[in-house]
Request: fold
Amino acid sequence: MPVPKRKVSKRRRNKRHANKGLDVQAITHCPNSGSPVMPHTVCLESGYYKGVKVLRTKQDRLEARGKKREAQQAAQKERQDAVQSQIAAKQAAKEAASNKDEAK
Reply:
């Protein structure tokens, strides 16, 4: 296994590592939400990329869930109203039948 012939000085090591520095990335702002976004990436808050909606955000999912829940509650209320009207109709029919029996 190869072994270095001499110790690499701190100065020589640091000069070698000086070229590995990272550049600061440019940050842009989303035109829809105004949040900071890296260039060429989708905004995670609004879900837009270049003016086109490409991602469902958490807010979109919450709104869809709310609409679905409202529709389910409305359907359930309609079913309950239908059942109650059927019960009321049966009771009215029983009362009418009992009134006929009493009239005889």
